[in-house]
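[agent] plan:
  1. take the single chain provided in the ticket
  2. run structure prediction with default settings
  3. attach structure tokens to the ticket
  4. add a short note for the reviewer (M.T.)
[agent] executing step 1
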Amino acid sequence: MGQPMTGMHRKNLPPGTRLPFVATCLHAQSWLGLLANLGRSEHTVEAYGRGLDQYMAFCSGRGVDPLFATLEDVSLFVRWQRGEPCDCMERRSAVANSTLLQRLTAIRLSYDHLRSSRVRAENPVPRGYSYERSISIEAHSGTGRTLVAKVETLPKIPIDVD
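[agent] step 2 finished; step 3 output follows
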């Protein structure tokens, strides 16, 4: 994600790169272009682009290159998205849990792309089911599940009134 884009590539931008941070990053553009090539919906590519752009903006505001971000950086992004105070970043209103999950998915998948491209050795965004088994961060006791729990609304059960 850290590589700036040269002017000659700007005319062939994949969907989602109208965003300022994604527009300057060849790795992010490559990943979004790959999603478009694989037939992902334009809306999906746009949403992932927005989520990735927000994450990259957050990293930039903290002086962190997203290419070298850690689990701690990602956890601070989650905190900031929840509207909680975060060092170096202005407080913001909280996003819905589903929005946060979508943004984390975009970030995790973009790091998966960096790993498969051999740009990065590991993904700082853990997968819920394999986080406990991950060799690279197995000793970390911060969480044994996903970074953000999925909230499911249960159906209403009528109450019999006698």
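[agent] step 4 note for reviewer: The chain has four helices and no strands.
[agent] ticket updated
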